[in-house]
Amino acid sequence: MAFDQPRNKAPVGLTTIKNDRRRSVEQVLVLLADPELKSYLAKVRGLVT
Question: Which pLDDT tens digit goes with each residue over 6-36?
């Protein structure tokens, strides 16, 4: 590890950032696939419009 990097932190590369972003998107998609959430969002949309 380089001298300018703290010992307790690993270097974060572009691949790590891409994987974290992919995992976040996957979590959102899983939530949106939930039928209870879909019905709740439909009710909220009905209140807004």
Answer: 566 666 788 888 899 999 999 999 998 999 9
Rounded to two decimals, what is the model's pTM?
0.51
Q: Which two tokens stand for residue 24?
A: 């976040």
Work out the burial of residue 10: count CB atoms within 10 Å of its CB; fewer than 13 is exposed, 13-18 middle, 19 or more buried.
Answer: exposed
Token pair for 19: 């994987």
Token pair 């998107």 is found at 25
How does DSSP classify residue 11?
-
Q: Which structure tokens are listed for 6? A: 């703290």
SS (H, E, C) 1-49: CCCCCCCCCCCCCHHHHHHHHHHHHHHHHHHHCCHHHHHHHHHHHHHHC
